[in-house]
Structures are given as C-alpha cells and as structure tokens.
Amino acid sequence: MVLTYCVLKDTYRTIAAPTAPVLFKEKQSKFLGYAFPVASEADVKTHLEQLRKEHVGAVHFCYAYQLGAETKQYRANDDGEPSNSAGMPIYGQLLSFDLTNVVVVVVRYYGGIKLGVGGLIAAYRTTAQLALETAQIEERTIDVTFKISFDYPMLNKVMRLVKEHQLTIIHQSHALRCEMHVATRKRNAEKLQGTLAAWHEISWESID
Q1: For residue 8, what pLDDT is reported?
Q2: What's the confidence (pLDDT) of residue 4?
Q3: Residues 104 and 131 sit within 8 Å (Cβ to Cβ)
Q4: Which of 47, 157, 195, 205 is deepest in the core (most CB within 10 A)?
Q5: Residues 7-17 pLDDT 10s
Q6: Main-chain dihedrals φ then ψ at residue 6, nearest 5 degrees
Q7: DSSP state of 18
Q8: Are 135 and 104 in contact (CB under 8 A)?
Q9: Is 188 left (phi over 0), alpha (psi -120 to 50) or beta?
C-alpha cells in the first residue's frame, strides 16, 4: 500500500533588503540591475520614480515584480523595448529564484548598437540574474493572527499558551479585560483554534 499526504505550505521566499546595483555590458549598452523587497504596487512605483531621478540619461527602465505569499500577482513591463524582450525575461528570474514580494528593475543606457530581440532577452535575463544572485534571500512563514480577549486573572494561563504554542505577540493591552493579538504559522492555526475553542473563559477570533 502506498500512502500519500499533502503538507501545507506555509512559507515563502523573498529578499531581506535592497541589493546594490549590478552592471552588465553588451555592445556598448549598459544594463544596471536592482532588486527591492516590496509589499505593494505603490512600493514598486516609489522605487521606479527614484531610479528615474538617479538615471536621467537612461532610455529604458524595464521591470518585473511578484506580490503575495499565497495568491500571487505579477507584472512584467518592457518600457518601450520590443514586446516580451525585457519584462518577461526579468520575471523569469523571479520564478527561477522562487521569490515573491520582490521587484527587479533593469535600467538601460543605450550604446548605439541594436542588440536584436534575442540579444535583449539575454541581456535583461542575465542582469536580473546577477542582481538576484547578490540578494540576501530568506524564507518567511505565512502566519494567521488571532485576537484573544480575557479577564486579567487568566493572564498567566494565556501566557503559558503563548509559550507552549510558540506564538508571536503582536499587540497586547492589560486591564480588567485584556486583549492580545498573537500570530502562529498557518499549519499550526487549526490546532490553536481547537485549544482556544475549549477555553470558555476567553473570547477569540481570527483576524487579517
């Protein structure tokens, strides 16, 4: 008999900090690669605007990003280069490194010699790869947050629960009626819900 099972994936890979620019040259064109951690499209826009200010002589600011720990969304932008010759090769490197919540931008200074579509694809792909190779990649957990409310005499018992389940306290307020926001890895959320449901002295709910 063969038994199969599914392990809930509750982690994702991203980068810890912006990378220093990397330089790739091809036929007198210069390609500068950057990678930034981002949490929203607004973050992407901020980084693009800053790079445009820093590189006023550049002709193209091509990029790709992926957002989301579980449900992912992405965008690839050629910024005037031939269709799919820049943004998608960059995005392909995000997939190759298995990264999310990251934007990679490649800034091009035109050197006067056309590279052709194949040359552009190789240049943008290579520059994105070089940028991500310099990044500090880290694995993070997908967490579920709970709000717990309880009377003050229950505090010690709740703190034991926090320790036993290795919960992360995000927020807490202690008064006659206490409130605590705690986070746990997604794979442990169901077990924690069962424990909380058995405690009639407290009220709780999961929150975004």
Answers
A1: 53
A2: 36
A3: yes
A4: 47
A5: 457 889 999 99
A6: -115, 125
A7: P
A8: no
A9: alpha
Q: Tell me the CA distances in angstroms from 191 to 13, 47, 146, 156, one per residue in order.
A: 25, 41, 13, 20
Task: Report d(CA 100, CA 95) in Å as an integer.
Answer: 9
Question: Which string of b and e fits 156-167 if b means at least 16 CB within 10 Å?
Answer: eebeebbeeeeb
Burial string for 42-75 (b: 16+ CB within 10 Å, else e) reads: ebbeebbeebeeebeebebbbbbbbbebeeeeee
Radius of gyration of the chain (CA): 23
Tokens of 89: 């090769």
**Residue that the structure tokens 């980084």 belong to:** 47
At residue 5, the pLDDT reads: 36
C-beta of residue 101 within 8 angstroms of C-beta of residue 50: no
User: What's the rounded Cα separation, in Å, for the pair 108 and 58?
Assistant: 6
At 96, list the tokens. Answer: 């190759």
Separation of alpha carbons 126 and 190, rounded Å: 43
pTM of the complete model = 0.81
CB 15 within 8 A of CB 135: yes
Residue 208 has what pLDDT? 67
- Tally of CA atoms within 13 A in the half-sphere of 152 that contains its CB: 5
* Phi, psi of 53, deg, nearest 5: -70, -35
117-140: pLDDT as tens digits = 999 999 999 999 999 999 999 999
Give the separation between CA 8 and CA 6, rounded to whole angstroms.
6
> Which structure tokens are listed for 24?
């790739």
